[in-house]
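fwd from M.: "can u put these together and see what the complex looks like"

so here's what she sent:
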Amino acid sequence: MIAFIASRLISTLIVVLGVICMVFLLIHFIPGDPVDMMLGESARTVDREALREALGLNRPLGVQLWSYITSLFQGNLGTSLHHRIPVSDLLAERLPATIELAVAALLIAVAIAFPLGIVAALKKGKAMDKVSMAVSMIGVSIPNFLFGPVLILLFSIWAGWFPVSGRDGWSSLVLPAVTLGTALAAVLSRMIRSTLLDVLQEDYIRTARAKGCSKVQVVLHHAMRNAMLPIITLLGLQLGVLLGGAVITETVFSWPGIGKLMIDSINSRDYPVVQACVLLISLSYVFVNMLTDLAYAWLDPRIRFGDR
Amino acid sequence: MKSWGLSFWLIILWLLAAVLSQFMVLDITHIDLEKILQGPDWNNWLGYDDLGRSVFNRLLDGTWTSCIVALTVISVSLITGTLIGTASAYAGGITDLVVVRIIDIFLAFPGILLAIALAGIMGAGIENVIVALSIVGWVGFARLARAQTLSIKHREHIVAARSLGTGHLKIIVKHIIPMLTTPILIEATFGIASIIIAEAGLSFLGLGVQAPDASWGSMIRDGTRYMLVAPHLVLIPGTALMIVILSINLLGDRLRDWLDIRSQLRIQRES
């Protein structure tokens, strides 16, 4: 168990450092001179040099990287070029909205995907299975930036039940959360179905049936508990769909979260903020996946008791 | 497989429309001021947009955009990803360790986040979309090719080739890569669907094609502003996008089942 945790922590650390390096290098993907891109061609030389100095772009690459990493670990993400306030303040202001959206979407996804996936697996090949898999296939094939506007059209403009955009109370959360949640539910229900189908073919399921357990008991106590392990890992990986999709969904609904901040910052060429948003989203994804791995280890007695 | 089904023909239609759009004289910038935001009518089945341009012509132009991006990105990602993954697994040792770490780092960026960041920083434009999606796209193929190669490289025919003195490059190209065709083909089918979504997504965010060229994503974005008066501006490119993605996904599923069954039959016959 301890060896497992240690190896997991080390590989997470390597990935975190790699992500930081990639995000640092992003600014060097700007074609031509980054300072020109941010200030425009007509900027005064003094201003250019000042910005170059402030961003540290006049120093060697290695030195820049080192100072980027060290200031990150001091919690310093730089200053926004557009808002003129520390980037960390901006992120702190926007983070609650994104967390709220992600949690709501996750709840919706779980609430839809589990019944759909379980029913489909139990009724494999029957009409129920085909209908629920067709629904999830359609769900997979509708991108967020299409489903969002369609929901706005149906429920905001025609029915008038929810606000079109913004973040103002619970009613404004419904449509973005549904948009994001159903996208995840579509993928998740397929995975739950196939995982459960694998488990249902195991010997212990046949044994449980043979000793007279009811079907409900077999599914809940024997099959689902064993299926939960891979499902938790898959859920952790699929959070990427959620976090990546949040950027687009937040833009569709003008939801004031990290994703909207990122797109706004791309449009205003506020690159330090763009870097910080990418960093925050991907590091939280890495962190969640590390947690699901640890949860897996703790839930699986074969790892918990050091069998492996 | 008895028939190719509707999804196959819809994909052929998509490709044909893309090719045709290059030969037809499509006046995608022609403005008809009297018909601004007009819905479908008998002369133009798909209506007009906010500037009075024909939605049908712009939809065809968008077909070309999605097609050219999807095919370019999938080719680049497939070739580089497969080569990197295969070579890494074949070489093993420290090379493999480094490649695995690099793959892990790329996979740490959820969904199309990295592509959005790259396209956003490199500046809008279809070339940058292609570059951004290719930088992200090779990873999936590399991971798949690596995993497959690891299980193939100890097989007898590889050992035999090696003991006959065959060069490493020849072993990889002639003896390993042909065995990867099936899984790579399935991965590529689903890959095309996700590239189309990604291109439309980037264009939706304003990072893809630039006016006056059209993309389904940018048509949806422009249409959302007129949803109340002209919902067809969102619904038409949206439906086209959904049909193409759905068809490709269905075809991918079908391909997977079909190839899977064949390999199962082969195993049965051998045993």
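replying to her w this: The two ends of chain A are 8 Å apart (CA to CA).
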